[in-house]
Amino acid sequence: LGAMHVFSIYPSLGYQARVLIDHAINQNRSSFALLFSDDSFGRAGLRAARDQLSLHNVTAVAEIAHRFGRLDAETVAEQLNASGAEVVLFLTGDPAVVDLIAAADRLSYSPMYMGHNLLVTGVMLQIPRAGERVVLSQNIHFGGPKHPLAAEFIDILKSYPGSARERVIQMPAFAAAKVLVDGLRNAGKDLTRESLVKGLESVHLDTGLLGTIRFSRENHAGPMGISLVKPDGMLKMFVPVATRREPISSSRHLTN
Fold it and tell me: pTM for the complete prediction?
């Protein structure tokens, strides 16, 4: 299958990086360091981050690559400290970024840390003063118990008890199923691969759980906006910073 047959209900790393950069700029932060995994995931995020920074006439003061699973926290902390960056943007899913933050603390270096939805984990709640200096993006957007799809999801859960972590997995799975059903409905009775692609490209659905998913012929990454959250160690949860933000537009495709 080629790219034309792939649809995503999750925002790309690049999309999230753009929103995070816009938020930091609005907070009067203008000095950025980019930490990225040296793989296709991290490099895609890096390209988008560079592009979004350029829209604000900003160039990163440091770009640091690392191999996933082999992040040298002490060395990278020293590099970041030397850069003097006000914001460190994590373009990596390596859980060792928590060790990096601890290493930077030992150097009395405490910038704003920003990262994507894969870093919204319980470990982040354990970082000292996390609520003051960590902002993460996430795509969960609960429409409330009166939203018909959210109400349906809540009703289904009554028969399938589970943990909070399982709920985080179940919510996008439910939303993805609804998106597929909408695409099948749009495709019509004579179903082919091509008609399904066209049907999905016509989807514009408020899922009640992940916000609105909208596909088109040019865009197969559906989320319209993402939310920003920060860790609250006292409440042991992530609390909202901003809701449903979309990036400032660029000449390039915003899903990159």
Answer: 0.85
